[in-house]
Structures are given as structure tokens and as C-alpha cells.
Amino acid sequence: MKSIVRFLPVFALATLLAACQKPAPPAAEAAATAPAATPATSDAEPAADAATPTEAAIASFDIESVPVSDAALGEFPYFSLPAGYEPMNRPVEMDYARFPFWTGQGFEWVEGRSYEASIDTADGKTWSEFELRKNLETLLDSVGAVKVASSRIPKEQYDTLKEDVTQGHIEGIGDIYNEPATVYVIRRADRNIWVHFVTNSAMGNWLIMETKPFEASAKLIDAGAMKKRLDETGKVALQVNFATDSTRIEPASRPQVDQVVQLLSDDPVLRLSIDGHTDNTGDARHNQTLSEGRAQSVVDAIAARDIDAARLQAHGYGDSRPVADNGTEAGRAQNRRVELVKL
Predict the structure, then answer these.
(1) What is the pLDDT, as a whole number, of residue 137?
(2) What is the 3-state secondary structure (H, E, C) of the chain?
(3) Parallel, antiparallel, or unpaired for β 312-316 and 272-277?
(4) Cβ-contact 116, 97 below 8 angstroms
(5) Which domains does the chain have, with CATH numbers?
(6) Among 50-64, 69-83, 91-105, 201-215, whose mean pLDDT is lowest?
């Protein structure tokens, strides 16, 4: 695992430590409701009667209030663990993901490139939450990071999170149900870098996300190309996008569904099985149910366009039939697919 962790010349010791912070006492939790743009200025615990933020401050987090940092940074994920600490499992990197960062009042949903890992000690090293926290805070302060929050997430808030977060980011999310979540943000001229970490007395978890605009990689396969592939191989895979953890087809994928309608209109005797597939993120039973529902959504969308539903079947296979490596984001993207199978 040590070969996975990268060390930067100046900031090496501080990084991955992020995963581990000493659980905040009630007074510290009160301080976490301070405006998000105010950096921590001392290691001392804040007073219990810290000023209550205004209603405007509570309403939402404003990234524009965070000063822009031009401090030198290395390559993503920018930070690495200090000596004696290492990822417990293989770190997970995703080219494009979505994660809710706690702001002390609610979640700020951020999309972009992500890195996450659970943290343990190397052989012979004694675990120290304080050591990790101290390293992390020193490092992040030095590059212009702002502490957005360091507090327990209320049950009514974390109960709103679905399995694509709680299971899909299991290496990085940590025990947010029992421990404080600490969140930092570094605002850059061209992107924002978010850091989330949670720790307890035995281990830690952390997640780093770099914002970037979404670039659609799925390409439209027209009716002619689908027919050619069906005649040659009996099936064709389509990248139909759905809302997160949902069976609702995204508007951007409607043109692809339209092409399936065109295919069936051009060949009145063609019958198809619409097969839904997922990657292996999250619970296998949930993935099975989700794949079935998504396949049925495609069938319903086609049938709504005056195609006889008797020509269509819906099947879901969950994550049981991968076509690429689920260990990479590119592979997971390929595995999240809808296949048309000639009957």
C-alpha cells in the first residue's frame, strides 16, 4: 500500500491525515456553526458561548466568500499521509463522482474527480488522532484552506443520504453517524478542492474532491448502427443515463431512447429484451432492484411512443455481468449500461 501514497516535498507529512480528527466536544461543535469562510486561527477549543451565526449564514454555504488561494500544489490528490500511517485498503479514485460535504448547516453537493481511503497505522505505529489532526490542519492552513465545518451531522440530515453515498463512498465517508465530520475547502481560480474526514479512536476515513465540469462521454448510437450490431452479435450496449439512485431517465438520454424507437419502427417484426446493468458500487440486492427498474423505465418510455409493449421484455442483472474492471471509474461507467438483446 505504501507505494500508492505520494509524498510532496513540502506538504508530505500532512495529507491523508485528513481522515482522522479528534472527535469534537460539544463546545467545538458549537463553533462549527460559525460562517464557513472563517479559517481556524488557533488549536484552542472555542468557547461554549461562541456567537450564533445569523440566519443568512445558516441558510447556505457561499463559496464566493472563501478567499482564493494560489499556493503551490502538486498533482491530485495533492496530499499524502505522514510517516507511520497508510491506507487500510486500496484507495478509490473516480474520474467523476458526486459527494455531499457537510457545511455545519446542511450538505453542499459537489461533483468532480475524487480520491478516498480508509486510514490505519503501519506496523509498530501507535494510532494518534491528535497527531493526524495536527498534521492535517497545519498543512491545509499553509495552502489557504478554510475549515467549513467540524461537527456531528444531525440524524435527520444523514438519513436523507442514499446508498450511492453511504455505500458508494464507503472508503471515504467514515462513521458520520457517531463522529464529527470535518470539512475544508481550498478555493482556486479554476477549481475548488474539498476535503472531508472522519475519525474515531481506531481508524479514520477521508475523501478529497476536485471540482470539474461534467463532460459527457456517452455517444449516441443511431438506429442504423444499432441494427447493424444486433444483426452481427445479437446485442448492443447503450449508455443511458439515469438520475442518481433512480429509475428516472435523464433528459440528455432521451435522444438515445428515440433511436431505439426508430429501430423498432423501421423493423416491425423485431423483438427486444431491454437488459439493465449496474456497476458493483453499493449493495448487490439494491443494484439488482435498481437494474430491473431502469430496464422497465426504458421499456415504458419506448412503449409510450406507440411501440407494442408485447415486443419488449425488461430484465435486470444488477452487477452480476460486468464487461469492464469495476476497480476503475472508466470500467464502472462501462458496466452501468442498458443492453438491447435480440429475441
Answers:
(1) 85
(2) CHHHCCCCCCCHHHCHHHHCCCCCCHHHHHHCCCCCCCCCCCCCCCCCCCCCCCHHHHHCCCHHHCCECCCCCCCCCCCCCCCCEEECCCCEEEEEEEEEEECCCCEEEEEEEEEEEEEEECCCCCCCHHHHHHHHHHHHHHCCCEEEEEECCCHHHHCCCCHHHHCCCHHHHCCCCCCCEEEEEEECCCCEEEEEEEECCCCEEEEEEEECCCCCCCCCCCHHHHHHHHHHHCEEEECCCECCCCCCECHHHHHHHHHHHHHHHHCCCCCEEEEEECCCCCCHHHHHHHHHHHHHHHHHHHHCCCCCHHHEEEEECCCCCCCCCCCCHHHHHHHCEEEEEEC
(3) parallel
(4) no
(5) 2-211 (no CATH), 223-342 (3.30.1330.60)
(6) 50-64
State the CB neighbour count (10 A cutoff) for residue 168: 22
Segment 168-214, tens digit of pLDDT = 999 999 999 999 999 999 999 889 999 999 999 999 999 999 997 65
Model confidence band, residue 38 (pLDDT cutoffs 50, 70, 90)? very low
pLDDT of residue 274: 97
CA dihedral 29, 100, 65, 70 (to 10 degrees): 110
pLDDT, average across residues 243-262: 89
Query: Considering only CA atoms, which of 193, 197, 206 is closest in space to residue 73?
Result: 193
